[in-house]
Amino acid sequence: MNTKRISHIIALSLLVAFSSWGAVPWTGPCVGVSDGDTISVMKRTTLVKIRLHGIDCPESSQAFGSEASKFTEDLSLKKTVTVVETDKDKYGRTVAIVLLPDKRILNHELVVAGFAWWYQQYAPNDKALQILHADARTNKRGLWADPNPIPPWDFRHTPAGLSSASSAGELPPATIYTPESSSTANDSIYQPAAPRTSPQASSKPKTLVIPPKTGSRSSTRPTYKPTPSTTPKATTSATVYTTKTGKKYHSSGCQYLSKSKIPISLQSAKGRGLTACSRCGPPR
Fold first, then answer.
1. Is residue 232 part of a domain?
2. 67, 73, 93, 156: which is the annotated catalytic residue?
3. Strand 46-52 to strand 94-99: parallel, antiparallel, or no bridges (unpaired)?
4. What CATH number is given to the structural domain containing 151?
5. I need a surface site. Which of 12, 32, 141, 265 has the fewest CB within 10 A?
6. Which DSSP string corresponds to 134-166?
7. Span 74-79, mean pLDDT?
């Protein structure tokens, strides 16, 4: 890749961002990372959730999703970043280009490393992202090591993706820090915020047992008896996973899915003549 050419294109991209969107850049500490393409930045006293412009990272439950989040944390968390706002998305998040302290662009770095797609639908004229995307794919960096990676916008329509999306936005960022004033001017100490946990599942269901009626009143009170636990039977709508060339279907964490992981319904798997993996014991 021609380094001078890409540098020139990136400079032009920033010029367009500043002029076309009438953007006024602002700076603040990055205090949270929700996933690879979503961070939280303090704008004075306001916490602003930022969706990175022009890119789409794998979902958290998707292959390379956790790697994308870790990459974003390493580059931006607890650092002062510059935000160039471009839009608002349908969830009310600020869509923006984010510059790191060394002036690299976080949006671009994720694509260069192979942890994000160029989101052509929302940035069709971004030549820098187009070139970086093609270069990462050609050199099989990050998610491009998989011969058939699933774009996140397609994954979100699979059973596994719909399940993940149903709880999106309900939990706090995966990693979040709160700044506290220090004794030195313009210096901040970041301490982990108290973790919030999802509501725990209730205990085993209980069945109300009413004593039989007798001729006289009884002081015996109803008692509760735990219902014996049973292992739920798999339904044909359960999601299992297969590989590009495999003849078996697997559970999500199976070791045989390290190179290829394609979500599929149990019904479809059986319809294709796939058999259950004996190692991971998927639904049958």
1. no
2. 93
3. parallel
4. 2.40.50.90
5. 12
6. HHHHHTT-GGGGSSSPPPHHHHTTSHHHHHHHT
7. 97
Per DSSP, the three-state class of 83 is: strand
* 13 located within any domain: yes
CB 191 within 8 A of CB 180: yes
CA distance 240 to 263: 6
Do you know the residue count of the chain? 284
The answer to whether residue 93 is catalytic is: yes
Q: Is 51 a catalytic residue?
A: yes
107: phi then psi, degrees, rounded to nearest 5: -55, -45
The SS3 assignment for 211 reads coil
Query: 29-75: per-residue pLDDT in tens?
Result: 999 999 999 999 999 999 999 999 999 999 988 999 999 999 999 99
The DSSP 8-state label assigned to residue 176 in this structure reads: E
Among 178, 197, 217, where does a domain finish? 178
Query: Tell me, what's the pLDDT at 256?
Result: 79
Whether 221 is in a domain gets the answer no
| 159 and 254 belong to one structural domain | no
> Taking the model in full, what pTM does it have?
0.57
Domain count within the chain? 2
Residue 28 domain-assigned (yes or no): yes
Range of the domain at 250: 239-276
